[in-house]
């Protein structure tokens, strides 16, 4: 199955079984992380069988067996790095879905001591593993809530990109973004907030996968 198909199958999953990640899965995910680190100059890494990833609140009250996770880190904090982390995280979440795993993006309730020893800027983590369930679709805004799309005036690929962006995870499922079509080019605006650039990366990845076009602005 393609990554594109994974967009409608991926949903946040917070409770996992105690089944380990297979050595093959660990290897495949690590390879994907390495490639993305190289491409975007990031410092992401995979931790397995490690129950240090979550805040104690999330560990004790919100989750089960959330012991495998990807640390979303860069060497320096910048808007560019944040956007790249969101873009890479979208790729990783859809990739793990395609190899039969589930995921959970955590921007707030992770262990904020992660990465300190290595002097890395850790922005979020993505928990991965064998979900107890496969989750459920999030409540979603509509095409007209988040864009200027009009059937007669705009191309089909633009619509498909926005529909894909509506499947992306956002913090607290807020979906505070807007697409506008200017001079033949789509433009994405994300509402300000500490996760805005990360969300921009997540949304951009989904838009590009859905539309088959680059979101170059
Ligand atoms: C930037 C960002 C930050 C998030 N932070 C948290 C968090 O701190 N705790 C949590 O339980 N979920 C967190 N989530 C998960 C979202 O609540 C979840 O992705 C959203 O409700 C949409 O659901 P979906 O992932 O099924 O599409 C975060 C997601 C994103 C994109």
- Helix % is 25-40%
Walk across the major sheet and give the strand order.
Answer: 1-2-4-3
- Secondary structure class reads alpha+beta
Which ligands are bound?
A: flavin mononucleotide
Order of helices and strands: HHEHEHEEHHEEH
Rg of Cα set? 17 Å
Low-confidence stretches: none
What is the number of beta strands? 6
Mass-distribution shape: globular
Total domains: 2
**Tally the helices: what do you get?**
7
| CATH class category label of the largest domain | Alpha Beta
Classify the fold: give the CATH topology of the largest domain: NADH Oxidase
Q: Determine the CATH superfamily of the largest domain.
A: NADH Oxidase
Largest sheet, strands/sense/barrel = 4 strands, antiparallel
Keywords:
7 helices, NADH Oxidase, 217 residues, 2 domains, binds flavin mononucleotide, alpha+beta, four-stranded antiparallel β-sheet, globular
Model description:
The protein has 7 helices and 6 strands, in the order ααβαβαββααββα. It has 217 residues and is an alpha+beta fold. It has 2 domains: 3-129, NADH Oxidase (3-Layer(aba) Sandwich); 143-211, NADH Oxidase (3-Layer(aba) Sandwich). The strands form 2 sheets. Strands 1-2-4-3 form a 4-stranded antiparallel beta sheet. It has a two-stranded antiparallel ribbon with strand order 5-6. α2 (23-40) packs antiparallel against α4 (79-98) and α4 (79-98) crosses α7 (196-211). The longest helix has 20 residues, at 79-98. The chain starts with a helix and ends in a 6-residue tail after the last helix. The mean pLDDT is 97. The chain binds flavin mononucleotide (FMN). Flavin mononucleotide binds at residues 11-12, 62, 105-109, 135, 138, 169-173, 195, 198-199, 202.
């Amino acid at each position: 199955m393609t990554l594109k198909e994974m967009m409608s199958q991926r949903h946040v999953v917070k409770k996992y079984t105690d089944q380990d990640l297979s050595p093959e899965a660990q290897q495949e995910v690590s390879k994907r992380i390495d490639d993305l680190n190289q491409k975007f100059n990031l410092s992401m890494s995979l931790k397995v069988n490690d129950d240090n990833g979550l805040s104690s609140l999330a560990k004790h009250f919100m989750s089960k067996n959330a012991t495998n996770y990807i640390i979303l880190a860069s060497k320096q904090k910048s808007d560019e790095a944040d956007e790249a982390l969101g873009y890479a995280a979208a790729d990783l979440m859809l990739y793990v879905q395609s190899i039969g795993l589930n995921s959970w993006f955590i921007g707030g309730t992770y262990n904020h001591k992660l990465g300190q020893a290595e002097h890395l800027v850790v922005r979020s983590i993505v928990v991965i593993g064998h979900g107890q369930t496969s989750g459920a679709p999030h409540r979603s805004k509509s095409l007209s809530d988040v864009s200027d799309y009009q059937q007669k005036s705009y191309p089909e690929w633009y619509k498909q990109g926005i529909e894909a962006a509506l499947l992306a995870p956002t913090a607290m499922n807020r979906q505070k973004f807007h697409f506008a079509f200017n001079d033949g080019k789509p433009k994405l605006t994300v509402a300000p907030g500490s996760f805005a650039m990360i969300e921009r990366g997540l949304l951009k990845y989904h838009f590009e996968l859905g539309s088959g076009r680059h979101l170059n602005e």
